Amino acid sequence: MRDPYLDKPQVARFWGKIKSVLFTPLSERVTTHENTTDAMETRMDTLESRLDQIELKYFHNIVGISYNVTFTSLSGLKVTGVWNATAGRLEF
Fold first, then answer.
1. Distance spanning both ends of the chain, measured CA to CA
2. Of the candidates 89, 39, 87, 44, which has an alpha carbon nearest to the alpha carbon of residue 69?
3. Where are the alpha helices (DSSP H) in the chain?
4. Which terminus of the chain has a smaller tally of CB atoms within 10 A, N or C?
5. Pairing of strands 89-91, 82-84
6. DSSP label at 24?
7. pLDDT tens-digit profile of 41-64?
8. What is the pTM of this model?
């Protein structure tokens, strides 16, 4: 008698997949989900940061705010501005 749906190798592969899902240790599945969750949280944090930057750029009228950046070394740095030696800063 012929099986109309699956032949023996197909049935064996099917049961192999089911066994791998059903009998995988719970700790392994939890670890996999934790890693996926951590990766998704990292991606979400990155997206939130980028969204905050876009909102600052396009939805807020920011005028006259100064930015302070401290460098340990200026070697290899190319900037345009005026060096204020008294204040020890570059002014734009």
1. 86
2. 89
3. 8-22, 26-59
4. N
5. antiparallel
6. S
7. 999 999 999 998 888 888 877 777
8. 0.37
> In this structure, what DSSP letter does residue 81 have?
S
d(CA 45, CA 38): 11
Residue 3 has pLDDT above 60, yes or no: no
Nearest-5° angle of CA 38, CA 24, CA 32?
A: 5
Whole-angstrom Cα distance, residue 34 to residue 46?
18
Q: Can you tell me which residue has the tokens 């049961």?
A: 15
**81, 90 contact by CB (below 8 A):** yes
Tokens representing 5 are 């749906």
CB 81 within 8 A of CB 91: yes
Rounded CA-CA distance 77/56 in Å is: 26
Residue 30: both structure tokens together: 């939890």
pLDDT of residue 4: 62
